[in-house]
UniProtKB/TrEMBL annotation, chain A:
SUPFAM superfamilies: MetI-like. It is found in: Cell membrane. Its main location: membrane. One of its GO terms (biological process) is transmembrane transport. PANTHER family: ABC TRANSPORTER PERMEASE PROTEIN MJ0413-RELATED (PTHR30151:SF0), ALKANE SULFONATE ABC TRANSPORTER-RELATED, MEMBRANE SUBUNIT (PTHR30151). It is a multi-pass membrane protein. One of its GO terms (cellular component) is plasma membrane. The chain crosses the membrane at residues 63-84, 96-115, 121-141, 182-206, 218-239. Belongs to the binding-protein-dependent transport system permease family. Keywords: Cell membrane, Membrane, Transmembrane, Transmembrane helix, Transport. This is ABC transporter permease subunit. It comes from Azoarcus taiwanensis. It holds the Pfam family BPD_transp_1.
Automatic annotation (TrEMBL), chain B:
It comes from Azoarcus taiwanensis. InterPro entries: MetI-like, MetI-like_sf. Its main location: membrane. This is ABC transporter permease subunit. It is found in: Cell membrane. GO terms for biological process: transmembrane transport. It is a multi-pass membrane protein. PANTHER family: ALIPHATIC SULFONATES TRANSPORT PERMEASE PROTEIN SSUC-RELATED, ALKANE SULFONATE ABC TRANSPORTER-RELATED, MEMBRANE SUBUNIT. PROSITE patterns: ABC_TM1 (PS50928). Signal peptide: none annotated. Residues 53-233 form the ABC transmembrane type-1 domain.
Amino acid sequence: MKRATWIRTLVVIGFVLLLEGLCRWGVIGRMTMIPPSEMADQLWKLLQSGRYNGHIFETLGNVAVAFVSAVVGGFVIGSILHSLPRARRAIDPFLATYYAIPFFAFYPLLVVIFGLNAAPIILIGFLFGVVAMIINTMNGLDRIPRVLIKTARVNGLGPLRTAWLIKLPSAAPQLFTGIKLAIAYSFIGVIAAEFIMSTSGLGYSIAYAFNNFDNRTMYALMLFIITLVTIVNAFFHVWERRIMARRGQ
Amino acid sequence: MRQFFDSLVFAAVLVAIWQGLHWFAGDIAIASPGVTAERAMVLLGSPSFWGHFRETFSALGYALAIAVLGGMTIGLVLGLHRLSGEVAEPILVSLYSLPKITLYPLILLIFGLGMSAKVAFGAIHGIIPVAIFTMGAVKTIAPVYFKTARVLQLSRRQLVATVVIPAAIPELVSGLRVGFSLTLLGVLIGEMFASQRGLGFLVMNAIGTLDVPTMMAVVLLLALVAVMISAGLLYLDRRLHHRVA
């Protein structure tokens, strides 16, 4: 392992131990935070009892639907816009300022339209992720070297084979950025929406535990989400590294 | 010019879709663009709206100040010291993609209800992207600048003030743009979940009383202000990058 990786591991462990110590010695009161070891212990109990399995699967399902539709939708819209330069120039200012609009303000509106179910939650996750994917798809397609397209034409590749053998691999780094943002944004969108207003899911369970002063459950579930998101991110990170390494970059 | 016209056409299409949705879903779900604009004008004339507006934007101001100063400091330190940068970058990136809303209860428990919790929540949204952008900016400064600084025997402080920050400014503005959006989002989410004041509260309150026009008018005004600020930063961003390139 590299030196930086070692130090990073030590830093993270040190931070957790520091928190543990501060909580145990009462510097951080029990009403504010419980020690990390108790969070983990409580999480283990919750997972074993299966009490929150329904909420967990529901949230993960919503995230998965939002993520997949954001990636597919963003890719398709991005490709179409890329082939229509005039429309793209017209829409560009809107895309550039898109993330300045505080999306969650629309969430209550979506609840009014669709009712208090999974649809507005998934839609918020989708809306949050799709534009990152659109922008990155267009950036990726922009960066395909002209010479490769010409080579494809010289070799008589059809449009489909050109797309598969030339365009997709050339655009891969940007597509990966888009996918990573889309996964982060769908998690953020879904959990925040559940948190603000919903009747089930992990975000709702955390808000519910908070309102009932049930700190143990709350921190256990927070730990669960943080661990889960970190693992998912690490997975994509490693996968991307591998693909880049294979290309010798 | 034609591009501007095309953008206007696109905006008109969006309003038309909005009107179409209104016809489709009815008054209870979506207020028409006309009614929303009317209500927005009424809101702009009422003092209580401006109270909420000030609350939200002063929280945003404090949060943004903390995020920018803190993020820049972290970014500068990590960018200038190679090893700590290597150690910290993956940690920062994974913190960036964490749904920070999960940490909101913790912030509420620490700061209690009110302004300081909102500011803190907004700041944790903004600080990480600013730090990541600053670090990236410092790392990509051409090495020849550092060599020149060493030849001129600049002190650490002079190096940061006269070389690092000017060279990194375009990227800093990009970071500020991302940081601004996320900080605003953080402040609003904070207001939507547990607050008695501010625009986020106004939206939640309007839905509680099923006052759809007010809700949409607040969202519209918020979006307009956010887009204007962001467009200004985007303009600055492009000009600075252009100047450098």
